[in-house]
């Protein structure tokens, strides 16, 4: 799905000659990943705070999963020296609420 963007999830399994370029229909049955998405639920929607509220968390729906991953990464990856990733060298063309404009960034 990361190699070619399609308008809907069903389009990844289409046999239409114009839209078909993926190996997904030959390898994965369509109903299985779609049923997994329907039943995947990580956090309680009753505690969801809408955008603009004081306690709003942009990743509230996946917060327990992110917290679990962060804890596991801290257990597994313990660098022996300081690690620095230069964000100015990574161009990003997508949309995100987390983006911050950096006027001095070399690659835009």
From TrEMBL:
InterPro entries named in the record: PGBD
Phylogenetic placement of the source organism: Eukaryota, Metazoa, Spiralia, Lophotrochozoa, Mollusca
Domain PiggyBac transposable element-derived protein: 1-107
Species of provenance: Plakobranchus ocellatus
Superkingdom of origin organism: Eukaryota
Protein's name according to its UniProt entry: PiggyBac transposase uribo1
């Amino acid at each position: 799905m990361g190699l070619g963007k399609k308008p809907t999830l069903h389009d990844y399994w289409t046999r239409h000659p114009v839209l078909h370029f993926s190996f997904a229909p030959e390898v994965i049955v369509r109903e299985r990943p779609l049923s997994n998405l329907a039943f995947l639920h990580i956090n309680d929607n009753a505690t969801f705070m809408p955008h603009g509220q004081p306690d709003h968390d942009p990743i509230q729906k996946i917060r327990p999963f992110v917290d679990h991953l962060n804890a596991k990464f801290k257990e597994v990856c313990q660098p022996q020296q300081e690690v620095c990733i230069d964000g100015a060298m990574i161009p990003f063309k997508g949309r995100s609420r987390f983006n911050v404009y950096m006027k001095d960034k070399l690659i835009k």
